[in-house]
């Protein structure tokens, strides 16, 4: 997908649009949350009857003086960047308590407020997470395998072919799923990514109430976190990597708030460990896997572009320059896409790892009834017995509680192996 930077970006319907429409048809208020630039405002504007833009000082002053204006505005009322006037949240909550019609308010926010509202809004304002665009949403390929079918538990037939290459996936990793970044090339894209990251470090931390005394330490910590993408590295290991060669390490009390603030900004989104309650799996690790909101951020923090990950020009590179790191980024791209798809299916995403790493499964998608779909992510195109051994093991352990088992890879076609494990190219997985 590309566009002329001088023209408005045409709106592309997102998977979350279906969920948003379903909520607004029944409930009076929804808060659309996600990192800056993910497309929340554009999505909300498709439905808004009136708009209050609170990153505009003039509109902020007006709404601070008279929050009741939102009641007189034409619905749906979009309150963009609501966290700049936290009292608006409480005002909307009270309006819902008094009885509003469905679809009255849409609130969007790029971070949690420095001063939280007096009430969480639970039961009144439904929150909806928005993430960067999936491969399907970007128009990368036409999916032929539906996650919803895999979650049904009847071992659905899988088929389809794609011309997507490893270079194509690498280009998607670097380009990012932020709508405003896509279509930008080379130096312009790098400048935009650098500006995005600088705003996080220089502005957003302050806006959420955290003063950064040593910006260089924060920047190095974030780069070290990026290098730990799709791993369960301890935060002590990340801190040490960020301060390699320095005698004095920053205290834990200095670095731990970095993670907390970045989670509030939805820039860091760790993948929690799966801790099942209905089977006999033992000795499971509770450590999360580290992920940034988009693997493009991790690549830029480490100064990597497609050439930095691959050797050789053209659509089929001759060599992977940094196999382990590219594998981590590919897993992070798949994880981001699967999270979007799973949210649409009302399912949650985890990872499984036994203590010591004896057994690992990259993604566990859990339905509401706690039955699961197990997924391994493999960067290569060929899938052998060694690649599926943990899926086979987990399927044996869980029995009927395992709905299906899948390897997501970069190969050309979707199929089922003789052992029943599905193999699905990342480009062919859709909602």
Describe this structure in words.
The chain has helices spanning about 15-25, 40-45, 55-65, 70, 85-100, 145-150, 165-175, 185-205, 215-225, 235-240, 250-265, 295-300, 305-310, 325-345, 385-400, and strands spanning about 30-35, 50-55, 75-80, 105-110, 125-130, 145, 310, 320, 350-355, 360-365, 370-375, 400-410, 415, 420-425, 430. With about 425 residues, it is α/β, with parallel strands linked by helices. It has a domain at about 15-130: 3-Layer(aba) Sandwich (Rossmann fold), CATH 3.40.50. A hairpin with a 5-residue loop joins strand 10 and strand 11 (about 370-375). The two termini are about 20 Å apart.
Q: What fraction of the residues are assigned to beta strands by DSSP?
A: 5-15%
Give the class from helix and strand content and strand pairing: alpha/beta
| Rg over alpha carbons | 22 Å
Work out the number of β strands.
15
Q: Approximately how much helix is present in the residues? A: 25-40%
| Spatial arrangement of strands, main beta sheet | 9-10-11-12-14-13
Would you identify the CATH H-level superfamily of the domain at 15-129? P-loop containing nucleotide triphosphate hydrolases
Give the overall average pLDDT: 90
CATH architectural type of the domain at 15-129: 3-Layer(aba) Sandwich
CATH top level label of the domain at 15-129: Alpha Beta
Oligomer: single chain
What are the segments in which pLDDT stays under 50 over at least 5 consecutive residues?
none
Instruction: Tell me the major beta sheet.
Output: 6 strands, mixed
Overall geometry: globular
Order of helices and strands: HEHEHHEHEEEHHHHHHHHEEHEEEHEEEE
H/I helix tally: 15
CATH topology of the domain at 15-129: Rossmann fold
